[in-house]
Amino acid sequence: MYSDQFVSINGSRPNQNVFIIDGGNATEPMFNGPAIYPSMDDVQEYKIQTSNFSAEFSNSGGGVINITTKSGTNQLHGSAYEFMRNDAVDANNFFANGGKTPYKFNQFGASFGGRIPKMKETFFFMSYEGLRWVQTAVVLGTVPTMAQRQGDFSQTLDANGKVISVYNPFSASYGANRTAFQGNVIPQTMWDPVAKNILSWLPIPNVSNSVNGVNDFFSKTGSSIYKDTASIRIDHSFTTSQKLNLLFMMNNAPIVYPSIFRPPLRLQGRPSDKTKVISSTQPHITRMHSITALSWS
After folding, report:
1. What is the DSSP string of 76-100?
2. Domain residues for 104?
3. Do 122 and 235 belong to one domain?
4. Which one, out of 86, 88, 150, 293, has a CA that is 20 to 30 A from the CA of 12?
5. 134 and 233 assigned to the same domain
6. Nearest by Cα to 136 from 208, 87, 207
7. Cβ of 270: how many Cβ atoms within 10 Å?
8. Is the pLDDT higher at 103 or at 289?
9. Would you place residue 286 in the very low, low, confident or very high pLDDT band (cuts 50, 70, 90)?
10. 58-72 b/e with 16+ CB inside 10 Å = b?
């Protein structure tokens, strides 16, 4: 998944890293991965520490990925970008039966920042990044044959061409052998209602030259990722050494997973991830400062 890519540092497991944004913990607690991905234009600098980091960075058996976001300046600045790729010049997929599969990738965004009017020491920076990624998954699988959908397994053969017997589960008793269904056909009176409903969701076989009903279904199923990431940061300077910054980031990425079931399952890939960070810098004595950060996701 686009939002679930981890890295291994110094041979550690990918879920043993810590992710920090503007001094606040941005580690997703369920899988211990990044809770959110800032847009490209939102990052001022980053640092990857792989060993010998200080005690302030805890809960890490791998590395620490530390990101600082941009803040506004006295002048207004902005940017805009788009990266595009589509199937216009792509080659055909070998398994797609001669038909080119659709592919569209659009990654775009914008940022804007500066000083808030009539507030001399207050600055803002906001950014947005969108992703529209549509691709096709080629699915080759095995579904029940038309005879099997009627309970008839008389033509269900193993690799040696021998009929695979289907036994009546109610015919077995302690120390006795099971009894196969007559003609290897399961009477519909013994069908479970749940099994009937599940069968209605399975597609009809569409590969005519399959052997023994194996790999008898082919489809080109669409898979799409629509991802939106937005953030806003506010900085205020009380004095040259006392500063306060507020950061809010949001990520929303519903994903349509390809499936042989119909209709395609639309699941929320990373439902509305949000990260909030409040940090302040305070002087204590000459050349000593403390930074206090509060963050939650």
Report:
1. -EEEEEEEEEEGGGPPPPTTSTT-P
2. 14-140+219-296
3. yes
4. 293
5. yes
6. 87
7. 19
8. 103
9. very low
10. eebebbbbbbebbbb
